[in-house]
Amino acid sequence: MVGVAGRHTDERPRVPAAGGPDPSRDLRRRLKRIEGQVRGVQRMLDAGRSCAEILTQLAALREAVSSAGVALIALELERCLSEETQVGDSVQRRLTEDERARRVREATEMFLKFS
Predict the structure, then answer these.
(1) Is the pLDDT reported for residue 26 higher than 50?
(2) Is the per-residue pLDDT at 86 higher than 60?
(3) CA–CA dist 33, 110 (Å, integer)
(4) For position 81, which CATH number holds?
(5) Cβ-contact 40, 61 below 8 angstroms
(6) How many domains does the structure of the chain reveal?
(7) Mean pLDDT in the chain?
(8) Does the residue 95 lie in any domain?
């Protein structure tokens, strides 16, 4: 992926381990970075930068949005495949195979809508 400054990054979506830090923290960080990229493209337009430079940054922006979507889907899959259903602070029960299959179908549908 090409960042706003033209640097290449190899950032992959990361899914924190269960019981780790807030899973949405990484997603919020990504979205703030995307917001900064959008402002950077706006400044490029205002400065009259070349079409090629702007398109390069728009391609990087599209990749960043896609990467954020994949990270969100990964978090959802992790939730769908969890062995137990959690309500509030208590663990309710283990999922049946039918429930697990339903959750996987829902996550797959979400992925297909996104892609």
Answers:
(1) yes
(2) no
(3) 24
(4) 1.20.58.1000
(5) no
(6) 1
(7) 76
(8) yes
- Domain range spanning residue 100? 23-114
pLDDT, greater one: 55 or 66: 55
Q: CA-CA-CA-CA torsion for 42, 46, 50, 56, nearest 10 degrees?
A: -10
What's the pTM value of the predicted model, to 2 decimals?
0.60
Confidence grade of residue 101 (pLDDT, cut at 50, 70, 90): confident
DSSP tally for the chain: helices H, then strands E = 3, 2
User: What letters, b where the CB count within 10 A reaches 16 and e where it falls short, cover 73-110?
Assistant: bbbbbeebeeeeeeeeeeeeeebeeeeeeebeeebeeb
Q: Is 50 within a domain?
A: yes
Report yes or no on 94 lying in a domain: yes
The C-alpha atoms of residue 105 and residue 100 are separated, in whole angstroms, by: 9
Of 102, 103, 82, 104, the residue nearest 94 (C-alpha): 82
